[in-house]
Amino acid sequence: MKKLVLTGAAGRLGSYLREPLSTMCEQFVSSDLADAVPNMAANETYVKADITDLDAMVALLEGADMVVHFGAIGDEAPMEELWGPNFYGAYTIWEAAYRNKLRRVVYASSIHAVGMHKKTDFIGIDAAHKPDTFYGLAKCFAEDLASLYWDKRGLEAVCMRILSCAQVSNSRAVGSWLSYDDLIHLVERAISTPITGFSVVYGVSNNDRAPVDNAKAQHLGYHPKDNAEQFAEEIYATDGPLDPRDPANTHHGGPFAAVDLGNSGVAYLNLNTDDTAKT
């Protein structure tokens, strides 16, 4: 691959992807709103750019083969805040990719696109959209945009519905954990699979209690290795009995399924951030 672009490169997950993605291409371009990113690879160029600026995205993706799109607000927020980066920003990426004749968009979607489904339903990649928040609604919009651009314009997309990519620090994560190694493996497969068309895949590790089914995404060759069961006994003992009537415990979206629209869901996740970002 000659040129690969990563948006959201200064974010928590984007920072983990920069190094491995730089090895997959001749020219690696990372982008975000930060003034700079540390520890750049020899073939990496950083471009400060706003994903709500279509002209800037067209320029950013010029000459690229693919774009890995992680740039967005990563939490529930009022619609007025999400509209630009999460909704319109998705459009600018797909439109810029189309104008530059890219082959594929690899997109950081989320379990929150289907967050109001119950965890006991064990949903597959063909589950109907059922967002839990405005944030989840933005993921639904981007997935439908990806489907539209594939059907009408032949632009491939892999939409990765990431569950919980952080340390296992709560009962929900025993099932929903996506380790950083498995995240990297997932993104690499989304890039290297020869033909994807429009594909959806759940970003989850090989957890004994994983509440989603990737059986219909086998063409991507994603085979996660890590398992959160090693943390289960300690986590369950710490959390104690869970309320079976609380949507945060019973639905895929976790706290996002319980908060009022516009209010942070991340604030209730009890995330351990000791190793969730590289500096």
Automatic annotation (TrEMBL):
Q: Which UniProt keywords apply?
A: NAD, Oxidoreductase
Query: Which sequence ranges form a coiled-coil region, renumbered to this chain?
Result: none
Query: What InterPro entries has UniProt attached to this entry?
Result: Epimerase_deHydtase, NAD(P)-bd_dom_sf
Superkingdom of origin organism: Bacteria
Occurrences of domain NAD-dependent epimerase/dehydratase (ranges): 5-162
Q: Name one GO molecular function term.
A: oxidoreductase activity
Q: Which family does it belong to?
A: Belongs to the NAD(P)-dependent epimerase/dehydratase family.
Official protein name in the record: 3-beta hydroxysteroid dehydrogenase
